[in-house]
Specification:
Low-confidence stretches: none
CATH architecture: 3-Layer(aba) Sandwich
GO molecular function, one term: hydrolase activity
Keywords: Hydrolase
Pfam families: DLH (PF01738)
CATH class: Alpha Beta
Structural class: alpha/beta
Strand content: 15-25%
CATH topology: Rossmann fold
InterPro entries: AB_hydrolase_fold (IPR029058), Dienelactn_hydro (IPR002925), Dienelactone_hydrolase-like (IPR051049)
Protein name: Dienelactone hydrolase
Helix content: 25-40%
Strand order of the largest sheet: 1-2-4-3-5-6-7-8
Shape: globular
């Protein structure tokens, strides 16, 4: 890992997170939001990839020290997450990045995967300082973003064979955002499964789609966070 664990202030106390900086120490800032497994090495590596691409990237530890490789435990931890504390932690992460000496953007980007995808949209709807939102197959039954409050454009990536977030759900999200007058671009990859971006899970990983989504994400953040 190239980054380091840091502690930042939250209205719920303090929160730890993994922070990765570009070689120059300066760049636009993005928040990377974990899957239901927790703040595992895969999420930290995504932060490192953002840093290599010129971004300051912070992944807050929303489980506060817990992580797992067990689907049963992951489901339990996802459903047990305290939404109010999570909202405060996300707000704290936004403020930490905006006040970071190396930050060059007036707003921050959010990107998340699975549970984190829904939290990415939730954060964007809850914080006007979020200037760009990326949602990879986001899901959490207890997290309901306030779309009316959303100011950031949304980029979404979903999978045709995803039983957790089927194409119908992705299309409904797109319709809801457009009906509310929001800027949105949704991509549904054919013959892809949930978590197709996760290269630590060979049973679902799709390299070509993951690379395409990554390129689109970088382009999106570079465009929206430079404004």
């Amino acid at each position: 890992m190239q980054g380091e664990m840091i502690t930042f202030e939250s209205q719920s106390g303090t929160c730890q997170g993994y922070l990765a900086l570009p070689e120059s120490g300066k760049g636009p800032s993005v928040i990377v939001l974990q899957e239901w497994w927790g703040l595992v090495d895969h999420i930290k590596e995504i932060c490192d990839r953002f840093a290599a691409a010129g971004f300051i990237a912070l992944a807050p530890d929303l489980y506060h020290g817990e992580s797992t490789s067990s689907p049963d435990d992951a489901g339990r931890m996802m459903m047990a997450i305290n939404i109010e504390r999570t909202a405060n932690d996300l707000r704290g992460a936004v403020q930490y990045l905006l006040s970071h000496a190396g930050n060059t953007s007036k707003s921050v980007g959010t990107v998340g995967f699975c549970m984190g995808g829904q939290l990415s949209l939730f954060a964007a709807c809850s914080n006007e300082q979020v200037g760009a939102c990326v949602n990879f197959y986001g899901i959490h039954p207890d997290v309901t973003p306030d779309i009316a409050s959303l100011e950031a454009p949304v980029l979404g990536f979903f999978a045709e064979n995803d039983s957790s977030v089927p194409p119908s759900a992705a299309k409904q999200l797109e319709a809801d955002l457009k009906a509310a007058g929001k800027k949105v671009s949704i991509h549904i990859y054919p013959n892809a499964d949930h978590a197709f971006f996760n290269n630590t899970r060979p049973e679902v990983y799709h390299q070509a789609y993951a690379e395409d989504a990554w390129d689109k994400t970088l382009t999106f953040f570079r465009q929206e966070l430079s404004q």
